[in-house]
Each structure stands twice: as C-alpha cells, then as structure tokens.
Design goal:
It is a single chain. The protein is built from 3 helices and 8 strands. By secondary structure, the protein is α+β, with helices and mostly antiparallel strands. The protein folds into 2 domains: about 50 residues, no CATH class; about 110 residues, Beta Barrel (Lipocalin), CATH 2.40.128.120. It has an 8-stranded antiparallel barrel. It starts with 6 loop residues before the first helix and ends in a 10-residue tail after the last strand.
C-alpha cells in the first residue's frame, strides 16, 4: 500500500542520516569538549537522533514545511492536500449538491471529511498513489445522514488531483466518479480554498 512516503526508503534514510549525525556529534564533542570520548558513546547518541528524525517526519507541524521544501526540489512529489475545499456533488439525476470539505493529511495518512446540508462523510480508507505520473487518491467512506431515520451507506471514489485556474489563481482540484452500496453513482468535484486544517466546514 502506497503512502506519501515509501517506508523502505524512509527506514534507509533514517538509518543513514542517524549514522552520519551520530558520528558528526561524536566528532564535535570529542574536538571541543571531551577528547577521551570513546566511539562506543555514539551508541547512546544514535537512538535519540533516530527518535528526533522520526518525530520531525511524522509530526504535521514539522513535516509540512519539510514536504514543501522537498516539493520545490522534486515537483513530482505527491501534493500536500491539507486544508479546506469547496465544490459540488452531481447525482445521477443531475441534482447539484454543494459540499464543503476538510482534508487532514500527514506523510502517513489522509483523512477526508465531506459535508453537505444533509449528511457527513467519514473516511474509512484512503490510498494516495501516482499513476502514469499523475497523482490520484483512492477514497472509501461512510456517509451519515442528518436525518436519523435515513440509513448510512458506504461509497468509493478515485480522485484525480490536478491544478486548475480559478479567478487567475492556480489551485488544486479533486474530482472523480463515486459509487455507493445503494447502487447510486455520480460525480464529485471540489477545489482548495485554504490551507488551515482547524477550520469548521460543517453545515450543521
């Protein structure tokens, strides 16, 4: 299963960087403070460096700036989808339903909460992927109607992720067809309106 980062590569890089930083810290301490520090002491430094690296990579506050920096170096890196979005659902009967969306994404997981005036959709599973050089997002959800007399249902969507021009500004857009276990289909599309992940986008 694909995530924003490849875990095999992550482990390799953490191991390499931990070794380099540990040896560097050892040389620094030996040169400026303790000349008789043995190389064995590096073993007590390495776990803490590995711990700090993993915290930096997996914590949103530090991971997002790192992600942004890496995106400049490698533009093909999977896009940062964090933030608020607005758009519409178009049902098979051509009924257009406004939606507001909040996406919270880390290097390890993606959570999408879709809100309409009559329901909320909660994430069951997401799988970011890149197919033929194009980023996509596989999304499985459970829709919870506002009216308790209506039953919940599950559905799935494969989102295409692309940049579009909106009022002279380049923004991200997610769009795709959805399918539900109620045998209904339709299309959903929304565009990013902000990067804040703490904003309330619910209708009720």
């Amino acid at each position: 299963m694909f995530r924003i980062i490849d875990f095999k590569s992550l482990l390799r890089y953490v191991a390499i960087i931990t070794t380099i930083l540990s040896i560097g810290a050892y040389e620094l301490v030996q040169s400026y403070w303790l000349n008789d520090l043995t190389i064995v002491k590096v073993l007590s430094i390495a776990p803490w460096i590995a711990f700090l690296l993993i915290i930096v990579i997996t914590t949103s506050i530090t991971a997002r700036p790192l992600w942004k920096l890496l995106k400049k170096v490698k533009p093909s890196l999977y896009p940062d989808l964090n933030g608020t979005w607005e758009g519409e659902i178009i049902t098979e009967n051509d009924l257009e339903i406004p939606v507001r969306v909040l996406i919270k994404q880390t290097l390890l997981e993606t959570q999408i909460n879709i809100h309409t005036q009559t329901s909320k959709s909660l994430t069951l599973e997401t799988t970011p992927t890149i197919e033929s050089g194009e980023p996509k997002l596989y999304y499985i959800y459970r829709s919870l109607p506002k009216d308790p007399n209506w039953s919940s249902y599950t559905g799935s969507t494969i989102f295409d992720i692309r940049k579009v021009n909106s009022e002279g500004v380049s923004v991200l857009e997610l769009s795709g067809y959805y399918y539900t276990d109620r045998k209904t289909t339709g299309r959903i599309r929304f565009r990013q309106t902000g990067s804040c992940v703490e904003q309330d986008v619910s209708f009720y």
